[in-house]
Inverse folding.
DNA sequence: CATTCAAAACTGCAATAGCAGATGCCCGGC
DNA sequence: GCCGGGCATCTGCTATTGCAGTTTTGAATG
């Protein structure tokens, strides 16, 4: 731990959620934006001091990150940010694709009319952002679409897993500084996914979602996604 | 917390691993074997007292279980064993199928000759147990095969996720008290998976593994796996 | 200058204590 | 007999403290 990265400035305490959650988000942010570099040591005490908390919430956050593969811990030695080459990033993208597919499958099985309406709204937001060429809000709208879709499945394992995998996506895109991801094609794919869900066709929903996620991945990692 | 279930007898302390890991395994065992019934309250203090530890390791174990969906926590109220109907169990089985498929894909890409040899050994063990009709060791050998396959991918997210999902499989099989799962067919499917991995065919490996896991699931949940 | 070994500094890890919020119980009123 | 409010209890949650194992450092020795 050299000088305190910006991800480790003190934490606002006026929160009702467990501190470990805030610490977790801070650490994820630092790992994603690179201020906590791969291989860098993550000392419970140092982080706690920098964030103005005690060691325990930090410890819980590190455990969670360890379970998600973003942090590696040697039993009595310490934790460090996991080293990730493009192969690992592409791997995580593949896993994300299959989990997104599973989420779409579940959504097609269980979506209520309200759920479908919400997805329509998100899709409209994406369409607007695409027409205006507003890539920042397009990205947010895209994430909102996926998040809403995950919520339909109402499966805690899927929701948490996909949230964790999103970090890898951010890392990958930041590292290869991609890339518009062909917004119009992505829009069309989202529409097709939604249509499959509305048609209560789990098999098609999964297939479309998986292909969409994988194609989006292949924009960032053309090398590792051949075949 | 009424009377202490057998899963909550005191913990042996002569361990070098973090206590939270031991607590986690105990709680998983209790949830799987039903001694910690669905909906039952899980008080940090009570569990800690019963296990002879402090509250902190228990808390970490509960957080992990929460991330895996086995436990539900209301922010300042408390944790309880998640309620799981057959639909949820079948859902988790579907997710397990796609993750097992992803693991097989990775294995086909990265397996070393030593890895293939280890898988061969596990498969032989399964073959022996099948011929002798020894269902107990067959089950262990089956798990050993899958565990070895997961390890090949060397992906912490997959390894941890699949380990967590195994609990759901145990719960499901215990609840429907299935079922020999047609050992010979399972054996043939494992052999086909191994062949695909050895042939470096990720697509086939994933497809075979997914079909295998799903078919195995459909034995326990014929209702929820139609279509 | 390189090596080694011991001590100091640091680390994960667990236990204890205390606080604030949530739960449940009991008692008084309708 | 049923309902509601206040108090006791219990809960999650965080901080503080202390211990044991690890890593690093630095000096003495070859």
């Amino acid at each position: 731990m050299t000088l305190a990265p910006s991800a480790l400035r003190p934490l606002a305490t006026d929160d009702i959620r467990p501190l470990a959650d805030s610490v977790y988000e801070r650490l994820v942010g630092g790992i994603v934006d690179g201020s906590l570099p791969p291989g860098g040591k993550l000392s419970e005490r140092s982080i706690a001091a920098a964030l103005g908390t005690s060691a325990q919430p930090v410890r819980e956050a590190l455990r969670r990150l360890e379970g998600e593969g973003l942090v590696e811990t040697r039993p009595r030695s310490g934790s460090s940010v996991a080293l990730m080459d493009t192969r690992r990033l592409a791997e995580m993208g593949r896993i994300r694709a299959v989990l997104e597919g599973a989420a779409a499958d579940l959504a097609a099985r269980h979506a209520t009319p309200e759920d479908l309406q919400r997805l329509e709204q998100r899709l409209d937001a994406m369409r607007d952002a695409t027409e205006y060429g507003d890539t920042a809000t397009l990205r947010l709208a895209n994430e909102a679409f996926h998040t809403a879709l995950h919520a339909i499945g109402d499966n805690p394992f899927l929701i948490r897993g996909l949230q964790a995998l999103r970090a890898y996506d951010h890392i990958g895109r930041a590292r290869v500084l991609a890339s518009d991801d062909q917004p119009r094609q992505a829009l069309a794919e989202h529409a097709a996914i939604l249509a499959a869900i509305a048609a209560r066709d789990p098999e098609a929903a999964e297939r479309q979602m998986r292909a969409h996620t994988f194609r989006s991945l292949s924009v960032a990692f053309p090398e590792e996604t051949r075949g």
